[in-house]
Amino acid sequence: MSDPARLVPLHRTGLRKLTLEQAVRRAQLLVDRSGLLPAVQAHLHAETGAPREFTARALLVGLATHALRLGEMHLTKVLSTLADLSPSARHDLGLSEEAATYRMLWHAFTGLNRALETGSLAIPHNHHWVNRATGELLPCPAHCPHQPITTGEFVGRLLDASVPDSLQLTGVLAIDSTDFETWARRRSWNRAPDVDPDHLPVQDDETHDDKRLPNEPTWPRIGHDGRAQHTVDWDAREGYRSGTNGGRGQVFCGFDLHLAVNARTTTGPEVPFVFTGLHLAPAGSHKGEAGIALIDQVRARRPDQPPITEVLADRGYSYCTPARWAHPVRARGIEATIDLHPNQRGQHPGPIPGTVIIDGTLFTDALPPPLRRLPGFPIGMAKEDKAALHQRYDQRAAYAFTPHSRPDIDGYQRFKGPAVAKRVRCPNYPPSLRLPHDRPTTRCARGMPCACGKTITLGPQDMAWTRQRTVWGTSAWAADYGRRSAVESGNAEIKTHRLHIDRGFTRVMGTLKNTLLLAFAIAGLNVVLLRDWHAKRQRPDPWATLTGEPEQPRKTRRTGTKRRTTTLATLTAGEPPG
């Protein structure tokens, strides 16, 4: 962790908003780094006939430029951004002197959408590509490794391009889903939420709506997936969003936006919370399957970055049946740190005599009765009370089985008893009696069978629903799971602080079109977040370094009769900002 004393509040850094010229330079570099332009050009630009008036470069750079201005992703507003460009910038994008029309932009955007929908978007074989590991410009081989471009790869390339190569990712993903309402008006309602059976339990009193209007004639309809369709948006479905700030949960109609954010390792320094994955699914869809799709989207990219080894997920994912979440995660060689729903807690018999499973962890029967039933951590719990409860869970952890080896290729893993792990003293395991007396001594009867000194093997199916590397509720688990605040911070950025991704942020219909606009919006947000993160730590903006821009002038403030300018140099030198 960096020294908090070195952090400069963002409002004192004197940063100005990106100018339109700066946004254009970054947008052009973003598009070039993504490598998407040749594929979009090959699809949109015909080899015969009159040349296209609205070029593929104008489409991609226009969307990226508008996203960097952190505005709503309306195509009409993207068109206004293009109209604000200087004549030279418009010429660089291949636009004529005449103003582009909305019809031109819509035709190009729907053409890109259709290419991704039909799987016809591919990089031409005569294209040169950049080796991200060495920086070499190489001709595309006969069987190009980047063909074809799927929607997931399109989104991934944009997000990858928004993160400079100088920023080393950690291989730790914090994932979460948030609601994204459709722009289309709702025309019908269900009596109960239409969500997947693996969804977290929904209380009836949380979804009751006294103001529910009567259904319009012929609504609801049966959608293409067999679920009820309540709007003219053919992909939008009904879902459930949990309450925030003590409010009740609500039913909404639209999509679940699943996001992956780069989080720090358990012992590593702080890192910028940049978005590395995005997956949009109809609301109420299976969260576990969407989470796996999100993880696979990130794993398939950036060979120059560390592989994904950890995922931090909340109950929305971990509550799903193991076959649709825990098993696929473990099969990919990824460790999951999860929270437990009250339905996942409790006491169950262990796999061998002398063992017991409590709150998802395997313990020996020597665990004292006072430590077997511990309360949870309710929202609003006082900090002192929470710390005291963590200490009781720490006492319980001494009696837990701990990993004795890494998991095998087939998923089997050995675990050693607490006496073997030198955590407790047990009379049935004589070597443990030589341990210091500060270790707890079990009440196991000498000569009677117990599991304190045993080593057992658990298969991938054993305790798959709740198993994780740290004992739930302990201080170590709290520190481990607390890293998931990375994605919560990301949600706050896209919902409140920087963007306002809610109903009306886009005005298109369908999963694919919304995915494209959201991908550009979040890629642009990554660029701005990195700029501000480095400014607060008195470091140069990596995107300014990539574009070769000089140090940006900062805001000026009056102090008495003097006017002073705050720059990165003055902050680094320790001078107070003017």
TrEMBL record:
Cite the record's Low complexity compositional bias ranges.
566-578
Biased composition, class Basic residues, residue ranges: 555-565
| Ranges of residues in domain Transposase IS4-like | 232-503
Print the keywords alphabetically.
Membrane, Transmembrane, Transmembrane helix
Q: Write out the coiled-coil annotation as residue ranges.
A: none
InterPro entries (alphabetical): Transposase_11
Region of interest: Disordered = 191-227, 540-578
Transmembrane segments in this chain: where? 512-530
Composition bias, kind Basic and acidic residues: at what positions?
A: 193-202
Superkingdom to which the source organism belongs: Bacteria
Query: What is the protein name given in its UniProt record?
Result: Transposase
Write down the species.
Streptantibioticus ferralitis
Q: What is the lineage of its organism?
A: Bacteria, Bacillati, Actinomycetota, Actinomycetes, Kitasatosporales
